[in-house]
């Protein structure tokens, strides 16, 4: 049999490893800054692009798509070539994948702090980046499939199955969730609204965790753990069950993020059922990974690579046990909107993704540079720093979550809330926020230790960018199953059929959940008094989105006695009919805002945005002086309303033509309301006089951003009337 010589492309792997470390440090540093903002809310006071609401999506995107994304590309490009005994199909596509991905990350790092965001969790980037991501992802997939076609290894190893499922599913999720209509170069509106948008978003959001943070890393686990332990995978049959059951079940679980909301009950219950079932394939994968180390546990004691991987797999097991538990309605009623979810997410991110990445990089770099790890002692030091960092981070967040849930729901004997002031809860958990910051600091210091160790390792080695390899050419075989050949074994040598079956498996759940919600009108009852936002309110809503207010405030009052008592009448599906996108939120650092309209005066909102402590003693909300001072850009309002009209919002052509006048009229009324505060009058008039005397430009209050934001906040939850509640209940 003729043996062919060829070269593995190590250069692309090294590029992705460098990017992984670089963006990892940046993403974690932004996260640490955010953690300290809970303790020192004025740490970046007055700097709009460093405010919490704008940096929070930068942190999540940097950690998920820059750090973890580059890591999975590094691992996939290295392992795929060796599993298929072939160089990547196209060096050009490899480089397009790398440089395109980095440019998207840089674009995100610029635009998100500037406030260009769609506000959708893990999909905040605006429409030009969505198109770019789709193009680069297709380039990656084409390269992967092209390499499979020219492979020299007949059967496809289990890691390749997970890589294929990742490519197909992420493409589907990204495209469906990011259907939007552009308004301008960096502004668009989601094609879906309210309840429909929430379902599509969390179908995407949950499965972004599943198919970007989980399935590719399971593929890496199936490759790198056996390599590091020098042991075969524990069970081939278990890997088959693990793969097919995981990708089929995972796609159904998204609605468990929306329990007790305005989402239809059938969708909520479906999400709960499949989330509970998800425990079995998830733990099947964990067991397969840990039992691969049978006979090699003595190595774990001394090998930092295996230490990281063991904790990573254990973290995966813990997170995938907790996920189904959190999907149970009685548990979710306690945990949702609290810091418990923050703890849950970071156990998965820091332990599973972070530690698996660290272990993989510690294993790869010495082999890529033909040397030994510069310091095993430093790697072990990093391991213990990271492990302690995770513990010190997560445990206080669990405590904070329990404290929040308990205080939010307690009643006095007379039926009033024991802690009626939301800020009482915030004050109680500040010590836990200190502990989180300490744990995060320890974790990132460990990453710096690793960076130093890896750089020294690379410098002492020699770079081999094209690694010589040899393997026999792939011999043609019959397409039919041979006698005695297992069906799955036959499927493993049919990459196209395997891809088609995986695609069908993931499409079923998505179609069953999403299609009915889009075509059955009864799921979103029409409430006659719910009207579209006025032009000024629409602009105010866009400012709310720009500033990331949804990161800290929900707009969903659940049907619990404690929430109705605290916030007002529970939320109805029909109220969100004109919300493009939905803004239900995932976390309550501050109180829910769905019924905040007309609850406070316009002056209160102005003072609250300028100096939150002046209206809410003990608040950890940062100030937003630029909103109070900056002129409102009204130039796009007609385009925005036309896009909304296209999406089904009943704006008339006359309303669109008169948008500027309508905004001035409503703004003038709010300005008059503000004159009720003597302090406002004296300050405002003094500023105006100073501007006139010094020849400076002065923006009338009615034309400032704060007035638009006040208009939006005062509208929230005010449309629904008693007769509408009766109408909805009879429906």
TrEMBL record:
Record's subcellular location: Cell membrane
Q: Which GO terms describe its biological process?
A: aerobic respiration; electron transport coupled proton transport; respiratory electron transport chain
Q: Which PROSITE patterns match?
A: COX1 (PS50855), COX1_CUB (PS00077), CYTC (PS51007)
The main location is membrane
What InterPro entries does this protein map onto?
Cyt_c-like_dom, Cyt_c-like_dom_sf, Cyt_c_oxase-like_su1_dom, Cyt_c_oxase-like_su1_sf, Cyt_C_Oxase_1, Cyt_c_Oxase_su1_BS, Cyt_c_oxidase_cbb3_su1, Cyt_c_oxidase_monohaem-su/FixO
Q: Which residues bind heme b 2; high-spin?
A: 344
Pathway, according to UniProt?
Energy metabolism; oxidative phosphorylation
Q: Which residues cross the membrane?
A: 16-40, 60-78, 98-116, 128-149, 156-176, 202-224, 236-253, 273-293, 305-321, 341-363, 383-403, 433-455, 498-519
Q: Which CDD domains match?
A: cbb3_Oxidase_I
- Top enzyme class, one word, equals translocase
Q: What reaction(s) does this enzyme catalyze?
A: 4 Fe(II)-[cytochrome c] + O2 + 8 H(+)(in) = 4 Fe(III)-[cytochrome c] + 2 H2O + 4 H(+)(out)
Cofactor dependence is on: heme b; heme; Cu(2+)
Q: A single Gene Ontology molecular function, please?
A: metal ion binding
Residue ranges annotated for the Cytochrome oxidase subunit I profile domain, each copy included: 16-465
UniProt GO cellular component terms: plasma membrane
Residues that coordinate or bind heme b 1; low-spin: 59, 346
Report if keyword Repeat is assigned: no
Under the heading SUPFAM superfamilies, the entry gives: Cytochrome c, Cytochrome c oxidase subunit I-like
Tell me if Methyltransferase is a UniProt keyword of this record: no
Q: Which residues form the Cytochrome c domain?
A: 535-667
Name the Enzyme Commission number(s) assigned to this protein.
Answer: 7.1.1.9
Show the Pfam families listed in the entry: COX1, FixO
Question: Binding positions for Cu cation?
Answer: 206, 256-257
Q: What does this protein's record comment on cofactor binding?
A: Binds 2 heme groups per subunit, denoted as high- and low-spin.
Q: Which family does it belong to?
A: Belongs to the heme-copper respiratory oxidase family.
Query: Could you identify this protein by its name?
Result: cytochrome-c oxidase
